[in-house]
């Protein structure tokens, strides 16, 4: 499902116009993004938890040349699904 399909689904389920549904989707994505940027965790009961995961610096290997290289530390977004979502997918 892409963003357009998500907006259409939100509009259909809520009775909002497509432009209102797009604003709602953008607001949710923006709120989650800004919370993660500030290091906060975002928990949505029944769906899951978004959090920031820290990756430490490490030594890697270039697969083409075989030479070693340093990979810088980084942060990335992580998602852990809630038990209810896991059960819905598997049951």
From TrEMBL:
Q: Name one GO molecular function term.
A: DNA binding
Matching PROSITE patterns = HISTONE_LIKE (PS00045)
| Protein name per the record | HU family DNA-binding protein
Lineage runs: Bacteria, Bacillati, Actinomycetota, Actinomycetes, Propionibacteriales
Q: Which family does it belong to?
A: Belongs to the bacterial histone-like protein family.
Q: Cross-referenced Gene3D superfamilies, in alphabetical order?
A: IHF-like DNA-binding proteins (4.10.520.10)
Keyword list, A-Z:
DNA condensation, DNA-binding
**SUPFAM superfamilies, per this entry?**
IHF-like DNA-binding proteins
InterPro entries in the cross-refs: Hist_DNA-bd (IPR000119), Histone-like_DNA-bd_CS (IPR020816), IHF-like_DNA-bd_dom_sf (IPR010992)
